[in-house]
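Supplementary Methods. Inverse-folding protocol.

Structures were first reduced to a discrete structure-token string of length 451. This string, shown here, constituted the complete conditioning input.
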């Protein structure tokens, strides 16, 4: 047992290296060929399949499952990649319980859907393991497109544009590509460096150049990109983090959950990553669950998620919530933070119970305190560094149809734009659809969007 296991404060090495390895293994290990055939045989290959409608990238799910059932998994992978070039990552991170699997007719009839996500991973992993890129570029159009952001939206847009013969330059503020696939997704969902391997594989199409540490508003400007390129796509995500607005939130060890997850994803030695003994996570979405679960897996003794509304309103799906509680996380609902107490570092967080009625959320007079040596804010992200001349709507870049912004020649998609739901798969769909629209405008060719 590690010496530091029950030490108070924020310390590294609460668990032994072996315990950490065991805790951070793949949360949903891949299917064997036999398991995949058995899972595929459960599909009814529905006409007008509801699972397709529920997929934001409209993958032809019954077709790819039939291709697995008939032992042509590479054809299945191509069906998936044609609609969603991030089929590998989406197979790992999509909340399938609220998307395709939630809509599967087997779910309604038997309470157990076809394992669409696992089958998608089976097919895509098999083809990607061969290393070579399966798509060929169309002849060069001579057009040049700038993409801001190398996250799922930007890379999906870039891949589709490159496939159509355009030359793409991606500008990203960070030193590595992948966006939140690399810096945000929980470690146990995408193990063994999958995010970088997937980007390398995707770039195998050719015609895409990435320039790192190039931030829009600093090293590059929208006017400059518009002048130099035939079109611009903005896929810059939500780089800002919302504040708690609780007294004393500037105390030491009150951190953004996304920064904690980023550090964890980039750590080469998890035993060196400091974690509290009593951790409080404030928020109710996927980020809150991921921060809380990973805090537990690093060895935090007591981890609580505190959410200001009713449990049914949490952004994290029921499946994610169950994952948190199964990992020993306590979920407290209808409570909002009002003060962070401590002398320099946080020691306790004070909450008010809330009521949620027709007139909105109200703080009651009932208060309680939770012991905390580390607090993670997971109350949402916001747009940062967006050019002033772009029209915004509800804090995001306003788009119409397939990503057209208020400025001619400028498209946007993914988390930074309206119309999405802050999921990897939606970002991929928006990037792809914007690329199709850009191509149609640049060349006069018809759009090719599945579904
Ligand atoms: C902690 C966490 C966990 C999540 N887990 C899941 C999950 O399990 N499943 C799921 O479906 N979704 C999940 N999501 C949501 C998902 O990650 C996002 O919806 C998705 O990554 C959005 O893709 P994007 O390309 O729009 O933005 P991002 O992935 O944020 O990529 C934006 C890119 O733009 C770059 N950038 C930002 N500003 C600038 C600038 N000014 N100039 C140049 N470059 C810039 C960034 O460096 C980044 O590379 C999670 C999100 C978080 C925060
Ligand atoms: S809804 Fe379910 S059973 Fe029907 S095609 Fe989709 S995966 Fe197969």
């Amino acid at each position: 047992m590690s010496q530091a296991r029950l030490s108070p404060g924020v310390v590294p090495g609460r668990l032994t290296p072996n315990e950490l390895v065991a805790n951070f293994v793949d949360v949903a290990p891949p299917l064997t060929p036999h398991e995949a055939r058995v899972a595929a045989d459960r599909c009814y290959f529905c006409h007008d399949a509801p699972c397709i409608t529920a997929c934001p990238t409209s993958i032809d799910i019954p077709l790819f499952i039939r291709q697995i059932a008939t032992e042509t998994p590479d054809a299945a992978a191509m069906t998936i990649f044609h609609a969603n070039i991030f089929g590998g990552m989406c197979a790992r991170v999509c909340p399938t319980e609220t998307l395709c699997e939630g809509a599967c007719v087997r779910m309604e009839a038997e309470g157990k859907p076809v394992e669409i996500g696992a089958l998608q991973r089976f097919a895509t992993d098999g083809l990607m393991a061969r290393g070579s890129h399966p798509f060929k570029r169309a002849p060069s159009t001579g057009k040049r497109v700038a993409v801001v952001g190398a996250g799922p939206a930007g890379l999906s847009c870039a891949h589709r544009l490159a496939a159509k013969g355009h030359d793409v330059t991606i500008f990203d503020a960070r030193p590595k590509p992948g966006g939140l696939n690399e810096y945000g997704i929980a470690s146990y969902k995408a193990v063994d460096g999958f995010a970088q391997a997937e980007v390398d594989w995707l770039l195998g199409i050719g015609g895409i150049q990435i320039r790192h540490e190039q931030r829009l508003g600093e090293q590059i400007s929208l006017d400059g990109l518009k002048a130099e390129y035939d079109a611009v796509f903005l896929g810059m995500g939500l780089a800002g983090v919302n504040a708690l607005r609780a007294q004393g939130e500037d105390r030491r060890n009150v951190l953004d959950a996304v920064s904690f997850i980023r550090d964890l994803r980039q750590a080469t030695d998890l035993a060196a990553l400091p974690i509290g003994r009593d951790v409080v996570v404030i928020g109710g979405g996927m980020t809150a669950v991921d921060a809380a679960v990973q805090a537990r897996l690093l060895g935090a003794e007591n981890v609580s998620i505190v959410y200001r509304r009713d449990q049914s309103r949490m952004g994290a799906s029921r499946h994610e919530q169950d994952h948190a509680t199964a990992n020993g996380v306590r979920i407290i609902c209808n409570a909002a933070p009002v003060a962070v107490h401590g002398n320099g570092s946080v020691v306790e967080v004070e909450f008010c119970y809330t009521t949620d009625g027709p007139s909105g959320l109200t703080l009651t007079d009932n208060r309680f305190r939770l012991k905390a040596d580390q607090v993670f804010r997971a109350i949402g992200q916001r747009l940062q560094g967006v050019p002033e001349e772009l029209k915004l709507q509800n804090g995001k870049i306003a788009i119409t149809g397939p990503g057209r912004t208020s400025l001619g020649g400028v498209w946007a998609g993914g988390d930074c734009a309206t119309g999405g739901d802050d999921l990897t798969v939606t970002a991929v769909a928006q990037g792809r659809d914007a690329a199709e629209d850009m191509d149609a405008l640049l060349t006069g060719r018809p759009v090719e969007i599945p579904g």
